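G.,

No rush on this.
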Amino acid sequence: MAPPKPPSRLVVLVSGSGTNLQALLDNLADAEAPGAEAPPYEIVAVGADRRGIAGLERAERAGVPTFVERVQDHNTRDDWDRSLAEAVAAYEPDLVVSAGFMKIVGKHFLARFGGRFVNTHPALLPSFPGAHGVRDALAYGVKATGCTVHFVDDGVDTGPIIAQGVVEVRDADTEETLHERIKDVERRLLVDVVGRLARDGYRIEGRKVYVGE
């Protein structure tokens, strides 16, 4: 009988409240219950581009090491990108997860972690990419939107799609109410996707992602 596969090592990147990070941490805590299946991943570090944010506090409460790489602490954006890549690489991750990380990484980071860097977006890509996906979908008048979990490439929300979740748009929705319902779906989808990638493995062929095949 083959020995059990060790859990995949995750580095999670955050910029704010860290609710997606908390969903991943809660899933790990649930796995510690008697009789629960061992989690397929472990969070080995949480990184941020800002100090004093709730996401870092969540990591510290969970006993997870943290680090901060601020753009303003480097001479150029290229230097920051290289330093971020080095900081993440120090933890030898199998996957890197952007959990509300609001910085666009560059060539140095993608050279290290391309094909292993997972992001979420609050719209059904390729529709409504960019920083205002919820607002843009609502303004366009769509009847359904949602969230996308995808791998990051050198474009803006253009990487291969792993999974999507659909959210109905209601007549009375504001950007805030719609975004809250999307976030609920997004957190569940991210936990499911990260678990499947870690447990079952995956391959990327062109724009298609095959999990466990």
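When you get to it, here's the other one too:
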Amino acid sequence: MILGLGIDLVEISRVERILGGRPELAARFLARCFTEGERRYCEARGAGRAASYAARFAAKEAVMKALSAPAGLRFTDVEVTRPGGRPEVALRGAAERAASALGVRRVHLALTHDAGTAAASVVLEGEGR
């Protein structure tokens, strides 16, 4: 059963401006929004790092929408991983508690970036409560 659905778009140029701007603001944005693992992955993309960050930011927003933006949710409570090639979502903290309360058993994630835009869609699957 589908328990939640979320989608989000992010302009890659917005992320490029942040990354290329004042170093202390870029560092604060990265620390506030991305886990250490996500930062390692995106930084390894070299010239494509802004698109990777944008796609992950879109994924976090899509998860938040699918969970109906629970109180106390932080961006780092949602982590995009790639253990087997395709992107997956790991939930922690408020995101994990909200998903558990809904009865979520699986989070489906799709990411894409093209023509200056990154997009993510999320489907929450489970039996419900």
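Helices lie at 12-20, 23-33, 36-43, 49-66, 93-102. The beta strands are 2-11, 78-81, 88-91, 104-114, 117-126.

Enjoy the weekend,
O.
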